[in-house]
Amino acid sequence: MTSTLPQTVSPFLEPGPRTKPNSLAVLQLSRDNFVPVYLQQASGEHDGYVEGAVINTRYGSFPHSTLLNVPWGSQVRASKVDTGSRGRKRKWQLDEEAGRATSEPIEDEKETGNGAGEENGDGDEGKQLVTDTSGFIHVLPPTPEIWTTSLPHRTQVVYTPDASYILHRIRARPGSTLIEAGAGSGSFTHASARAVYNGSLVKGKRPGKVFSFEFHEERYHKMKKELSDHALDGIVQLTHRDVYKDGFLVDGKSPEADAVFLDLPAPWEALPLLSRQRPQLREGEAGEAGANPWVSPLHPKKSVFICTFSPCVEQVTRTVSTLRHLGWVDIEMVEIANRKLHTARDRVGLYLPVDRGVNSSAKDIEEAITKLTEIEERFRENARPKQPADGSEPAKVASKAATNGKTSVDEAALKYPWLDGRLVTRGEPEIKTHTSYLVFAVLPMVWTAEDEATALARYPIGNEKFVVSLMGKASMKEERREAMQQKQGNRKSRRKDRDEKLAEAEG
Ligand SMILES: C[S@@+](CC[C@H](N)C(=O)[O-])C[C@H]1O[C@@H](n2cnc3c(N)ncnc32)[C@H](O)[C@@H]1O
């Protein structure tokens, strides 16, 4: 992947309706195969292709020009590209290097795209691209979910089921300020950047921000570049830092975080630096407590929500113990067991009369063969156009197939192959995602005498104009009177009815 011009708003946050030049797009080759790519406007020959920049996949070649300015989600068909020109180009370059420049191969390249076929894009400099006979991909906008599955892994990453749950539990929302350590491969960073983004172009809104920390120098540089390529560097501030030692201030100032996520091998080492008060000096640590005023990285006027992510329970135990010592409350551990369920229609054993919830196979070979023959016949039938001459709706295919002398039990289902068979859901035998233990906790905001005075001024106690209980007494009395009157009224009218009926009977 190559980076180009920066964008103002990240395509992860506001991708717009269509693909754009110099912006990240994700090509979906198959269900779980995604390729991130920066789309480039064709400007002449590129890497030996006269079509400009080209992406080669096992499903064919895709010049960038065919992927540009299309609505997100578009299916794009492969193009015929002049792959031969690459070899010839190299030969030409070699010739040039040897001092024998020749334009011969370039002449040949001009032939590309002149064959018969559907045009699928405005090739550069008048060159027309030709759609290949097969192969297609889908162009998708970049999202944190897709990025997590396609990013270049440098570490274990936090996957979407965990990331979404964590962000929800630590109350990451538009305008939040989140501390994250370590950044690793940036999977969680992308998810958190979107969670805190509040369309910061709107005036008067507190801009959301992620303060991310990474200790490993190479990972830090790679991620710094990725953030800039993805135009997320306005929202994510990445710092190269050992947080165990140097804490979470940025340029000496507090990020004033209201949410924290620690994906570190030893979160308990970092927790003392996420306090509201100066942490006690640790064993072997030099320094004068109180030499400089303590600056907390946490928001002073908000409760702070934390999550730590640890793969083994021993780490959890230490983390929980440290959290308790440091005054965090509501400490809870959660494990996410993500499981995929595969749901499909089982088309075998349909003709067995009543036990459709139980049978999973044909009664005998004859039934299986009859069923298969019928399915094939139905597919052939469906593939044939059946538009009647009068232009009315084509008739649905009704199958009259019988098995072992019996007619099918589900005639209606046979008309629609997709409704055929019973629905079967199978779970994965094993849980495949890498997950960890998630520890959650809350550090309540510090409640000062000033806060108490403000609260009292807003909700005064003792100066009320109405006393709720007195109001209640008066209204309850009124309600009782009304109920009594109604009751008496009912009794009177019942008595009147009875008297009238008696008079009728007697007279
Ligand atoms: C498992 S990875 C984090 C993966 C990340 N959450 C993601 O979703 O891509 C842990 C990272 O923490 C970093 N790390 C370890 N100790 C650190 C420290 N003391 N300060 C800052 N980062 C640290 C490691 O270099 C590593 O990249």
Would you kindly provide a written description of the structure presented here, covering whatever features stand out?
The chain is an alpha+beta fold. It folds into four domains: 24-140, Roll (Vcp-like ATPase, Chain A, domain 2); 145-279 and 294-335, Rossmann fold; 349-385 and 400-427, no CATH class; 464-507. 31% of the residues lie in helices and 20% in strands. It contains 14 helices and 18 strands. The chain has a seven-stranded mixed β-sheet with strand order 10-9-8-11-12-18-13, with helices on both faces. Helix 6 links the parallel strand 8 (177-181) and strand 9. Helix 4 runs antiparallel to helix 6 and helix 5 crosses helix 6. The protein is flat and about 105 Å long. The N and C termini lie far apart (105 Å). The model is unreliable at 1-7, 87-92, 97-126 and 397-409 (pLDDT under 50). S-adenosylmethionine (SAM) binds at residues 155-158, 181-182, 184-188, 213-216, 219, 241-244, 263-265. Pfam families: GCD14 (PF08704). It comes from Lasiosphaeris hirsuta. Residues 475-484, 496-507 have a biased composition (Basic and acidic residues). InterPro entries: SAM-dependent_MTases_sf, TRM61_C, tRNA_MeTrfase_Gcd14. Residues 1-10 have a biased composition (Polar residues).
List the helices and strands and how they pair.
Layout: E1 24-30, E2 33-38, E3 54-57, E4 60-63, H1 64-67, E5 75-80, H2 84-97, H3 104-109, E6 119-122, E7 128-140, H4 144-150, H5 160-169, E8 177-181, H6 187-196, E9 209-214, H7 217-229, E10 236-240, H8 243-246, E11 259-262, H9 267-270, E12 304-310, H10 313-325, E13 329-335, E14 341-346, H11 365-383, E15 402-403, E16 406-407, H12 411-415, E17 422-427, E18 437-443, H13 449-458, H14 468-506
Parallel strand pairs: 8-9, 8-11, 9-10, 11-12
Antiparallel strand pairs: 1-2, 1-7, 3-4, 5-7, 6-7, 12-18, 13-18, 14-17, 15-16
Bound molecules: S-adenosylmethionine.
Biased composition (Basic and acidic residues): 475-484, 496-507
EC number: 2.1.1.220
Protein name: tRNA (adenine(58)-N(1))-methyltransferase catalytic subunit TRM61
